[in-house]
Amino acid sequence: MSTPRHDWNTDEVEALLDLPLNDLIFRAQTVHREHFDPNAVQVSTLLSIKTGACPEDCAYCPQSAHHEVEIERERLLPLDEVLEAARNARAQGATRFCMGAAWRNPTDKNLERVIEMVRAVKDEGLETCMTLGMLKAEQAKRLSEAGLDYYNHNLDTSPEFYGHIISTRTYDDRLETLEHVREAGMNVCCGGILGMGESRRDRARLLQQMANLPKHPESVPINQLIQVEGTPLHGIEHLDPLEFVRTIAATRILMPASYVRLSAGRTEMSDEMQALCFLAGANSLFYGDTLLTTPNPGENHDLALFERLGLRPETGPEAPAQSDQPASASA
Ligand code: SAM
Ligand code: DTB
Ligand code: SF4
Questions:
Q1: 225 close to ligand 3 (CB < 6 Angstrom)
Q2: Is 129 one of the catalytic residues?
């Protein structure tokens, strides 16, 4: 059994990314099998609980008020709408419900409202995750006490490339929020975006930051940039799909016991590319036909993909048992 390390240097991580693809995937798949059932995939569903008009200037994001993107802005959703979406997600087979808000950080007043959402969604037997921007220590503690299982806060890219993408908050701000989440006792969900024009070394540096945290994030979402018209990154050169697969494999090797989520960008990926990502150690995805504001392959497509690959959705703590059933049996 490989013991998780927290002392990777950049050259070591880059050397993984440089391996012949067969060697890299073999290593990743070997590590994967030491820690996980190779044919089970954790399934989460996303809901945007507050959409658009965000004061941050993240160059990739359609929700930033700094870019001219046509999206429908929404104030914080009422509890009953959130609950209805959570029930639908559970009925479709998701075990975790992730709620995202286009905020720099939640105000204390908004925190009260999202805490009610956490309690209500948990009562439905779903795991809960939120991504609300930066958190103060006290806010993280309150969310944790309310029962929030996971907090998502991404590092997005390497410390060196970060300044090309975001100017309104620093890398250290992000690390500080991650520390607050960890100290409050919640599971950490932290990942990044590939295909923003970064180099392979930047990808290595991003992975190194996460692998060298005192404790590995329990969940590591690897997003492929969704190029949205009106954002500054629209129209840049696309990343080689095999480079994406390589990064998934290196993530698996570096954080052997973490869930690696094949996150945004799947509508642009062939089934064959996604199959390679699973082979490289991805074992989680977002389910449902929208991410926050952009499209995602629908459940039917994903169930067909699971069927083709002999994969099955992982069952959650209180989800109905379906582990002996082929994925299509619950469709
Ligand atoms: N506002 C909060 C924050 O940024 O922390 C939470 C929501 S934000 C939309 C969550 C994450 O979505 C970002 O950190 C980024 O990694 C990802 N994301 C946003 N736009 C994306 C895009 N166009 N392509 C891929 N990932 C994207
Ligand atoms: C993450 O790493 N990816 C998800 C989730 N965490 C919140 C968000 C992807 C957003 C893609 C762009 C959109 O739909 O607006
Ligand atoms: Fe705002 Fe989050 Fe989008 Fe950045 S990624 S603009 S913080 S919603």
A1: no
A2: yes
Q: What is the DSSP letter of 261?
A: E
223 ligand 2 Cβ < 6 A: yes
Q: Are 315 and 95 in contact (CB under 8 A)?
A: yes
**d(Cα 148, Cα 284) in Å, to the nearest integer?**
19
**What pTM did the predictor assign?**
0.92
Read off the DSSP letter of residue 184.
Answer: T
pLDDT tens, 114-152? Answer: 999 999 999 998 999 999 999 999 999 999 999 999 999
Domains located in the chain, CATH noted: 10-310 (3.20.20.70)
Q: Is 98 a catalytic residue?
A: yes
Cβ pair 137, 159 in contact under 8 A: no
CA distance 185 to 182: 5
Confirm whether residue 58 is marked as ligand binding: yes
Ligand 3 contact, 296 CB (< 6 A): no
